[in-house]
Amino acid sequence: MMSMNADRAKKSWIEEKAYAELARIRKAKEKQVYPLFREFEKGGLHTQIDGKPIVNFSSNDYLGLTNHPRLKEAAKKAVDKYACGLSSSRVQATTTEHVELERRLAKFFGYESCLVTTTGYQAMVSLIVSSSDKDTTLVLDSYSHACILDGSFMACGVPGRQPEMRFFNHNSPKSLERILKTRERKNALVLVEGVYSLDGDIAPLPEFVEICERYDAVLVVDDAHGSGTLGKHGRGLAEEQGVEDRIPILMTAFSKSFGGIGGALLGQADVIEMIKNSARSFLFSASSPIPVIAAVTTALDIIEDEGPALVQELHQKRDYFRGKLLEAGFDLGKSTTHIMPVYTRDERKALFMHIAMLECGVLMVPIIYPGAKHGEERLRVNITRGHTQEDMDTALELLKSYGEAFFVLSGEDLGPMDDDAF
Ligand SMILES: Cc1ncc(COP(=O)(O)O)c(C=O)c1O
Questions:
Q1: Cα of 11 to ligand 1 centre, how many Å?
Q2: Could you give the residue range(s) of every CATH 3.90.1150.10 domain in the chain?
Q3: How far apart are CA 194 and CA 250, in angstroms?
Q4: Is the CB of 263 within 6 Å of ligand 1?
Q5: For burial by CB atoms within 10 Å, which of 30, 163, 246, 411 has the most?
Q6: Hey, what CATH class is 88-288 in?
């Protein structure tokens, strides 16, 4: 039987638009270099693609807890109690498990209150849209994650509330100060990330805190990639930089160190209560499933009990891998963390490296335009606590071989080709 769309002779505008917009992707697929949406056949860092064992180096499972037997066991028990869905939003589908996790997270991160959301993206959008109006200037780092950008765009589109939206130069206290000084609205909400997810560099929080306090601005830190990976106890960049009690609002995500999915907003009780009662993206979207909440709560148990040892092990692996990459001559940009982009600064080099490495059982996803600017193409390389010494050494050998073969290490041109690979 033919599909409904194929039956029609004339294409609708949306079909024509999609066909036109997919030109680049069609070409990449024809050339068999399309690198995205690869299908895992197994969970965890040691996975399988097309029947072949693969070690994933683009995962955010930083503490290697996703596949931990205790998390799986907790999730299985929760399935028996609550199944996989709650059939509604938190307004009418909150459980004691959600509230307990909120209480525990507030205590762990040292805040009065916490709101757990179904994704990290939702947490950020909820915060921005519900807290900003025509008296607000949203002040964004120019490298902001999509959830910060989209939350701000959404806020700017709410009739009658439209905040002002301004950008400052990435990680620049001077530029932040200039924007705060010249803002048009009285209330400023400054939005930064702790660890930048594609670049692996960190925000200078002590300077940002000082400037925000001086200009009466509220600082929000999205520490999705710092929670569990930085600070002695894994409480994130603010712990590492000694400013934990001076970050008014912290946001984190469970899809990295906490082995699940979800988001959390932490702050003063009334602020969290306001978001909980007014954020449309929270109020009108379904509640987080309890098997996930149970797994995340168990990850928190483990981090509370063993945090310093887990963080230390991650840092040892990070330092080993970084040292070897630099020794080999790779360009890691401004990264100082476990997120170590290996720059190829060329689209074809990134794609060819990716495919060659994957053939040998190592996944490093290429980040190319529009995910990265032209000239900033790279392989996404994250070191996690779950990688073994053998995983790291194999990946290093392959990176060195193919880095030479594809002129990533020498920086030479790949030479002319018929056209762009992708
Ligand atoms: C910095 C940052 N913030 C927020 C998010 C969103 O989290 P989630 O994937 O849970 O929606 C991500 C995830 O990609 C992220 O990297």
A1: 36
A2: 23-66+307-405
A3: 10
A4: yes
A5: 163
A6: alpha beta
Q: Which residues of the chain form CATH 3.40.640.10?
A: 88-288
Residue range 23-66+307-405 forms a domain whose CATH class is alpha beta
Ligand 1 lined by 344 (C-beta under 6 Å): no
| Atom of ligand 1 lying closest to residue 261 CA | 10
Mutate to test the pocket of ligand 1, among 122, 125, 140, 197 (most ligand atoms within 8 A of CB): 197
Tell me, using a 6 A CB cutoff, whether residue 120 lines ligand 1: yes
What's the 253 CA to ligand 1 centre distance in angstroms? 6
CB atoms within 10 A of CB 67: 16
On whether the pTM is more than 0.90, the answer is yes
For ligand 1, the distance from its centroid to the CA atom of residue 263, given in whole angstroms, is 8
CA distance 106 to 114: 5
Q: Hey, which of 127, 145, 225 would you mutate to test ligand 1's pocket, going by the most ligand atoms within 8 Å of its Cβ? A: 145
Kindly give the distance from the C-alpha atom of residue 20 to the centroid of ligand 1, in angstroms, as a whole number: 30
List the one residue out of 31, 95, 92, 68 whose CA is nearest residue 301.
Answer: 68
Burial class (CB in 10 A: 0-12, 13-18, 19+), 281: buried
List all residues 6 or more positions away from 30 whose beta carbon is below 8 Å from its beta carbon: none
Tokens representing residue 191 in the block: 């939005």
Per-residue pLDDT of the chain (422 residues; tens, 9 = 90+): 555 555 567 999 999 999 999 999 999 999 888 999 999 999 999 999 999 999 999 999 999 999 999 999 999 999 999 999 999 999 999 999 999 999 999 999 999 999 999 999 999 999 999 999 999 999 999 999 999 999 999 999 999 999 999 999 999 999 999 999 999 999 999 999 999 999 999 999 999 999 999 999 999 999 999 999 999 999 999 999 999 999 999 999 999 999 999 999 999 999 999 999 999 999 999 999 999 999 999 999 999 999 999 999 999 999 999 999 999 999 999 999 999 999 999 999 999 999 999 999 999 999 999 889 999 999 999 999 999 999 999 999 999 999 999 999 988 888 766 555 55
**Nearest alpha carbon, ligand 1 atom 8:** 120
Q: Are 263 and 115 in contact (CB under 8 A)?
A: no
Q: Give yes or no for residue 119 CB within 6 A of ligand 1.
A: yes
| Residues 46, 63: Cα–Cα separation, whole Å | 14
Pairing status of strand 263-267 against strand 249-253? antiparallel
The reply to whether ligand 1 has any atom less than 6 angstroms from the CB of 62 is no
